[in-house]
Amino acid sequence: MRIAVIGAGVMGSGIAQVLAQTGHDVVCTDVDAAALDKARANVTTGRYGVDRAVERGKLSRADADATLARLRFGTDLAAAVADVALVIECVPERLDLKVKVFRELDRLAPADCVLASNSSGFPLAALAAATDRPSRVLVWHWASPPVVMKFAEIVVLPSTDEDAIARVRELAAACGKHPVVVKDQPMAWGYVANRIYAAMLVEAGRVVAEGVASHEEVNRLMVDCFGWPVGPFAMVKGAQTGFGDA
Ligand SMILES: NC(=O)c1ccc[n+]([C@@H]2O[C@H](COP(=O)([O-])OP(=O)(O)OC[C@H]3O[C@@H](n4cnc5c(N)ncnc54)[C@H](O)[C@@H]3O)[C@@H](O)[C@H]2O)c1
Fold first, then answer.
1. Does the first or last residue of the chain, that is N or C, have fewer Cβ atoms within 10 Å of its Cβ?
2. How far apart are CA 54 and CA 193, in angstroms?
3. How far apart are CA 185 and CA 121, in angstroms?
4. Distance (Å, whole) CA 71 – CA 124
5. Is the pTM of this model over 0.90?
6. Pocket test for ligand 1, best of 5, 43, 90 (most atoms within 8 A of CB)
7. pLDDT digits (tens, 9 = 90+) for 52-99
8. Domains with residue ranges and CATH for the chain
9. 13 CA distance to ligand 1 centroid (A)?
């Protein structure tokens, strides 16, 4: 499949890598040429990049080279989406920006192309309404780092095309993810995973504000009690800046 990823930041670069590693031709675009340079470095020599995967014995050198050969980077949005079957939007979490990008994508991408957003929580209804193809718009919410996390929360409306849902669900499974299709909820932010996570974070913040425990102590307790890879506050930091290059 030919796929375009819009926004080459923490999520976009990792998502582009996963798709290319799964055998798809991917073009990753950004308005910022420096972000594209960083994305190229991330997918090659970054902590989750293909070179490290080769070092760890998770990928052969030939597969790593083939992955990189399937990945292109550029700033030209029109060229990137001209002949793709799927677009995954990964621009910053601002509704005005996402609506603007979806309007552009609707104008530039082929009529049958599925437009997916990796939004963390904006209602799908608001994004779909920005286009003339609302039934071919959905949310494919990934978790960070995309190369590692199996999470694939697919958010749909009752009017979303079955064919669009199947295209994304099958692709997510082929990428080694565990797709779960959930309903859009226009009155809430966060779909399922982030709604529940946000409720937990409010309580964690309360514990700190009450002086019961520090941020670090809350992180330590939650990791040790529940086997989480990081605690709630470390997760927020990781989501904003990535999980480091160590
Ligand atoms: N970081 C996480 O853990 C995480 C997890 C799941 C979902 N998300 C969601 O993924 C999306 C992207 O998050 P991120 O952390 O990768 O952000 P980021 O800031 O790392 O990257 C966003 C990129 O988009 C680019 N951009 C801005 N405007 C653009 C435009 N008009 N066209 C093309 N590119 C543009 C920026 O230059 C930047 O490189 C957000 O909606 C976020 O909520 C993030």
1. C
2. 32
3. 10
4. 28
5. yes
6. 90
7. 999 999 999 999 999 999 999 999 999 999 999 999 999 999 999 999
8. 2-183 (3.40.50.720), 193-241 (no CATH)
9. 10
